[in-house]
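Checklist before submission:
- one chain only
- standard amino acids only
- sequence pasted in full

Submission:
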Amino acid sequence: MPKSAEEHVMKPYLRKLMREHRALNKLIDTTKTFGAQSQVRDMKRIRLRLKDKIAALQRHYYGRTRTA
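Returned file contents:
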């Protein structure tokens, strides 16, 4: 089954978002140890926006969400 042009572009974008989400998780974990609470809070907000965007794209393309 051939991919649509949109899906051809969106799948790599989705993988990029998932990599960013994982990297942010690691950064949050390391920043917590230094006690930078305001930075951690800001990173968590960004992480949540990424997770929401990932879930929306997965619902659109796959009809369900996958874990990020």
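Reviewer check: The mean pLDDT is 85.
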